[in-house]
Specification:
Elements lengths: L12 E4 L5 E2 L6 E3 L4 H15 L11 E5 L11 E6 L2 E6 L2 H14 L7 E2 L2 E5 L5 E7 L7 H12 L5 E5 L1 E2 L2 E2 L8 H6 L16 H13 L3 E8 L4 H6 L28 H17 L4 E5 L8 H11 L1 H5 L3 E5 L12 E4 L7 H8 L4 E3 L2 H4 L21 H5 L15 E8 L7 H8 L2 H10 L7 H9 L1 H7 L14
Parallel strand pairs: 3-4, 4-6, 9-10, 9-18, 10-13, 13-14, 14-15, 15-16, 16-17, 17-18
Antiparallel strand pairs: 1-8, 2-7, 5-6, 5-8, 11-12
Helix pairs in contact: 1-2, 3-5
Bound molecules: acetamide.
Length: 481
């Protein structure tokens, strides 16, 4: 039997009651309010797999899912889990909260066989509203079925945003109405790093993926990287360069050589068409416009371009997120810089925070999941250093940049770039277990976090990953069973 707090991310409050363990009986059933039906069905399915019992839905189940009064201060993701000798009650103000509580309960189950749940009470709510990870579809495309599988896995750790890097120099991965060559040419054969990552999402496939993510209570954050990282767009449409001359497809990993032309009207027609289309396909509140590493855009052109483009997400009902370089220009009121570098200070981000902007924290030396774990890691890069599991855990986003404290943070995100990756198995190897560290940083109260406790709890997830067919790195830092 697991201990009540043996879960990731660690809940805000855990009060074990060893006299109140619940032995799940063969006639176990689940009851749920109508708004809790979807979570109840998933819970029953998981219990069936573990126990082999029929686990029907009844009016008076020994496992009860309840929608509770919201209360002003409660996060929609908050929940309460009470385990007593005669049954389990999971209560939350929203379906989202019940889904979060279900992930906790699921981790308390054994992989197979008799179930005894540890007695006591958990009261839980997230530290940050935004807990994300990013997948780079431009350098290597992953099929929708793989992305759905990935969503299933990350949801188990209460990750609630998946940022999709959809465009870059080596590929364009989302169909845009009126601009068919973006995906016909730059999403086709031979695109991606080494030409090994072809493919794109049709508008329908993207919409289906967004809808699937919503069933996992995950918001998709689409990124169109501008004004740099645009070679693939310029291959498809040479009029998007300043001189209108054709450019060659690129399958290497260089950065900083391509730029949209800030002085050309065609640029803004293109950008607005793309932003309008992506916004219309995306029910979530955010649209990421990139803004990073525009090394072949002059500072003046960057300012001209960004000043025109930054209001466009808002025009189409979205909040702009951008890599933190965009903080060099005056931002719309609700725009969100995402810090990604390794330096200990950043004046632009500090200024944005002082002006009231929320910030997403993704320092590469802690949260970039494409960094190698150690020198022997066969995949990944090391420009930001080696990122062991402990390094990914043992830092705090509220301490990362002077002037960017707790109250300025929307949350934390762990990006994964695909230059060296070729499959979902490669993705999983880089992400697991480090994403669990970022998930705990994003969810658990700071004062409750502790590396030695995390390290011990993490070991249990090795067999769980194996049972679910998820690839992971068996880091020597963890005493895997
Ligand atoms: C980045 O890593 N260029 C955001």
């Amino acid at each position: 039997m697991k201990h009540l707090g043996d879960v990731i991310p660690l809940p805000a409050s855990v009060r074990p009651d060893p006299g109140a363990d619940f032995r799940v009986p063969a006639d176990v059933s689940v009851s749920a309010a109508p708004a809790a039906a979807a979570v109840a069905d998933e819970l029953a399915e998981v219990l069936r797999e573990v126990t082999g019992f029929p686990v029907p839905r009844t009016e008076e189940g020994s496992i009860r899912l309840e929608i509770e009064a919201a209360g002003e201060a409660r996060s929609p993701e908050s929940y309460r889990l009470a385990i007593a000798a005669d049954g389990v009650t999971l209560g939350a103000p929203t379906e989202q909260g019940l889904f979060a509580g279900f992930q906790t309960l699921r981790q308390l189950l054994p992989l197979k066989g008799e179930v005894v749940l540890p007695g006591g009470r958990i009261e839980d709510a997230p530290r940050f509203a935004y807990r994300g990870t990013m997948l780079d579809l431009a350098r290597h495309f992953y099929q929708p079925a793989d992305i759905r599988s990935y969503l299933d896995t990350i949801a188990q750790f209460k990750i609630n945003h998946l940022h999709l890097h959809l465009t870059d120099d080596q590929g364009w991965r989302l169909e845009i109405d009126g601009w068919p060559r973006l995906t016909e040419v730059s999403g086709g054969e031979g695109t991606g790093i080494d030409g090994a990552g072809p493919g794109f999402l049709t508008a329908q496939e993207y919409a289906d993926l967004v809808a699937y993510a919503a069933t996992r209570h995950i918001t998709i954050v689409p990124e169109i990287d501008l004004p740099g990282h645009v070679n693939a767009a310029q291959v498809a449409y040479p009029e998007l360069t300043c001189d209108g001359e054709p450019v060659q497809p690129r399958t290497d990993a260089e950065v900083g050589y391509s730029s949209l032309c800030a002085g050309k009207e065609e640029t803004y027609t293109f950008v607005e068409d793309v932003i309008r289309t992506v916004a219309a396909l995306t029910p979530g509140p955010y649209l990421h416009i990139g803004g990073d590493e525009a090394l072949s855009t002059t500072a003046e052109d960057y300012r001209t371009f960004m000043t025109r483009v930054l209001p466009l997400p808002g025009k189409y009902g979205k909040r702009a997120i951008g890599w933190h370089e965009m903080a060099a220009v005056d931002l719309p009121q609700d725009a969100i810089p995402q810090y990604w570098r390794i330096e200990p200070t950043d004046d632009g981000v500090a200024r944005a925070a002082a002006a009231g902007h929320q910030v997403i924290m993704s320092p590469a030396d802690r949260s970039y999941l494409d960094m190698k774990y150690d020198e022997s890691t066969p995949l990944g890069l090391d420009w930001a250093g080696l990122v062991s599991v402990e390094r990914s855990y043992d830092w705090d986003p509220a301490d990362r940049l002077p002037g960017v404290g707790e109250e300025s943070l929307l949350g934390v995100e762990a990006p994964l770039w695909s230059e060296t990756l070729r499959s979902l198995a490669d993705v999983e190897f880089m992400v697991f277990p480090r994403l669990l560290a970022i998930a705990e940083i994003g969810w658990t109260p700071r004062a409750a976090r502790d590396w030695s406790s995390f390290r011990e709890r993490l070991a249990e997830f090795g067999p769980r990953f194996e049972a679910q067919g998820i690839n992971y790195h068996r880091s020597a830092e963890i005493d895997w069973p």
